[in-house]
Write a structure and sequence with these properties.
It comes from Zooshikella ganghwensis. The protein is an alpha+beta fold and about 190 residues long. Helices cover about 25% and strands about 40% of the residues.
Length: about 190
C-alpha cells in the first residue's frame, strides 16, 4: 500500500511539474499561415503572413525557419495582448529589415493606453537578426512590433516567443519529492539489514 501511495505521489508531482513547464512558453512562429486572431495596427498596408517576400529591388526573402513569417509594412504593427511577464522572463524573435525598414519593439503594460519603445531595430538591411529582451519587472499587458521605416519598407518577423522563468517552487517541489523517495529507499534498505 505504501509503495502505491509513493508511486501516486511521484505521478502527481511529475504531472504538476510538466504542466508548469508547458504553460511557461508562448510561441508564435506564424506556421498557421494566416493572421487568424492576431491584432495588428494599420499603416501603409496590412501585416500579412507569407511564405516568401520580394522587395522593391527584386530580392526574395524566405522564413528564418519553418514555412511562414510575418511582413509588417510602413507604419503598421503586430500586437500580442494578454501577455503576463515576470522579472527574468525573456522575449525573443527574429527579424529582417527590407527596403530601409526601421522596426521597434514596444511594451504596453497598460494596454491599450500606454506604451514604451524599448528598442529600435536598425541592423543591416537584408539579413535575419535575432532580438532578445529580458523583462525587468512583473506586468500584464501587450508587446508590439512596428515598422517606422521609409515609405514602401517592410519589417519581416519570425519565431516570436516569450520564455518564462521556471517557477522555483515547482523545482523545489520536484527536488523534495526525489529526496523523499531516496530517504524512503534508504530507510527501507536499512530495515532489511536488521
Amino acid at each position: 500500500m505504501l509503495k502505491l501511495i509513493q508511486a501516486l505521489l511521484v505521478c502527481v508531482m511529475t504531472i504538476g511539474w510538466i504542466t508548469n513547464i508547458q504553460a511557461s512558453l508562448i510561441n508564435d512562429d506564424f506556421e498557421n499561415g494566416d493572421m487568424g486572431g492576431r491584432l495588428f495596427e494599420l499603416g501603409m498596408g496590412v501585416p500579412a503572413i507569407v511564405k516568401e517576400f520580394t522587395d522593391r529591388s527584386g530580392q526574395v526573402y524566405t522564413p528564418a525557419s519553418g514555412e511562414y513569417f510575418a511582413t509588417i509594412p510602413t507604419g503598421a504593427g503586430l500586437i500580442w495582448t494578454n501577455v503576463q511577464w515576470q522579472k527574468g522572463d525573456r522575449v525573443e524573435f527574429q527579424y529582417l529589415l527590407a527596403d530601409a525598414a526601421e522596426g521597434s519593439f514596444q511594451l504596453h503594460p497598460e494596454w491599450p493606453h500606454t506604451g514604451d519603445m524599448i528598442a529600435r531595430l536598425v541592423d543591416d538591411v537584408g539579413s535575419w537578426q535575432t532580438f532578445s529582451y529580458e523583462f525587468t519587472g512583473a506586468e500584464d499587458g501587450a508587446i508590439a512590433l512596428q515598422n517606422f521605416g521609409d515609405f514602401g519598407s517592410f519589417l519581416l518577423v519570425d519565431n516570436v516567443s516569450i520564455i518564462k522563468v521556471v517557477a522555483p517552487s515547482s523545482l523545489l517541489l520536484g527536488l523534495m519529492g526525489l529526496f523523499g523517495l531516496l530517504a524512503r529507499k534508504r530507510f527501507a534498505s536499512g530495515m532489511e539489514n536488521k
